Amino acid sequence: MEPGNVTWPSEFLLLGLSEDAELQPFVYGLFLSMYLTTVLGNLLILLAIVSDPHLHTPMYFFLSNLSSVDIGFTSTTVPKMLVNIQTHSQLITYAGCITQMYFLLLFSGLDTFLLTVMAYDRYVAICYPLHYTVIIHRWLCGFSVLACWIVSVLISLLHTLMALGLSFCSHLEIPHLFCELDQVVHRACSDTFLNDLAIYVTAVLLAIGPLAGILFSYFKIISSIRAVPSARGKYKAFSTCTSHLSVVSLFYCTLLGVYLSSAVTQDWCSTAVASLMYTVVTPMLNPFIYSLRNEDIKRALRGLLGRATGRGPADPPR
């Protein structure tokens, strides 16, 4: 690109998955069904937690926040994809792209920090059960979630302001389904050294740091469970962690897959598909993981559906 062509862009072109017109109805239906499933599933989890007094505990308070974040995470990308497919246009305005990038950073950071806080909650519940209510009290829960929001907002704001300081060239194509930070930064014509440095530092903060905390928590949890004498006691103790551990594994495995695919292959389509896994698929599967592997959630959902259909939760089926 010639230095003389530097200008402020009015819009970007998102290349998407495929330009094949015959595939567009299938892709549209797939994204729409996944989005509706994600929103409905996470809303049901939220309603179940709010409506059941037995679930007004720290663990489910954090879970309700995670469900809210997952709805926002998916809503940042999928509606725009659906509009682009419906209108046969892959354009996104400069302001829209920067806004989408900001909220992607915000919700991905919140997901990471909330999963870490939930791991700490399980660590205290299993390793220090007699002191759980003293350590994990209401104020600590509120402060933890507030801290997650503050740090995520600051990180997102930092990257967004730094991206606004870049100069872009004309005919900007983003080989992706949405405006991801790395893709936007590397479309710039100006020097991106500080942006790249900030991205690497943030990667350590959002990935390695929280992951180390989660692994440490589960190392302590497994050590405590091994000390339980009965097999039934071990199963009961670990069963409270299986849902969270499944969500953590899914989130980090898909996130790792994105960066490995981008490092191993230059095929942008493969990288875009991998990105869909943690931005769309993981938020969609989280409600299923918690509802299928958690008896308290299943009981609350049965009660919620029973009230919605006009029967009490204890009423026999007709």
UniProtKB/TrEMBL annotation:
It is found in: Cell membrane. Keywords: Cell membrane, G-protein coupled receptor, Membrane, Olfaction, Receptor, Sensory transduction, Transducer, Transmembrane, Transmembrane helix. It holds the Pfam family 7tm_4. GO terms for molecular function: G protein-coupled receptor activity; olfactory receptor activity. Residues 41-290 form the G-protein coupled receptors family 1 profile domain. The chain crosses the membrane at residues 26-48, 60-79, 91-118, 139-158, 197-219, 240-260, 272-292. This is Olfactory receptor.
